[in-house]
Amino acid sequence: xxxxxxxxxxxxxxxxxxxxxxxxxxxxxxxxxxxxxxxxxxxxxxxxxxxxxxxxxxxxxxxxxxxxxxxxxxxxxxxxxxxxxxxxxxxxxxxxxxxxxxxxxxxxxxxxxxxxxxxxxxxxxxxx
Length: 128
Prior knowledge:
Blueprint lengths: L1 H31 L6 H4 L2 H11 L21 E5 L3 E6 L9 E6 L4 E2 L6 E6 L5
Parallel strand pairs: 1-5
Antiparallel strand pairs: 2-3, 4-5
InterPro entries: Cyt_c_oxidase_su5b, Cyt_c_oxidase_su5b_sf
Subcellular location: Mitochondrion inner membrane
GO cellular component, one term: respiratory chain complex IV
């Protein structure tokens, strides 16, 4: 019985040593390669396409805060769309609770029917 306990204790210690050796070998491999890989090195697929677009200064999924436009005919509010028309809601006054909805079509800038603010639809390509 004592021999079995000793044998089991030895096999458990040997198993622990093997695990430690594997972890250390993996640690040395990572350290020789330069450490932990960055997010850019690990990213694949759609995440990688999004990161590359952000590096180039593009905003593929409207992640960034939109630029402020004055809403005049010369500087209309830009509305991105993957189609040729889009439904737009305009809050004509800052404290207004009613939204004025209208269809915005591709082409020249169009005015809000209530306040006269200008909006322009531009085509937006998704990165995938």
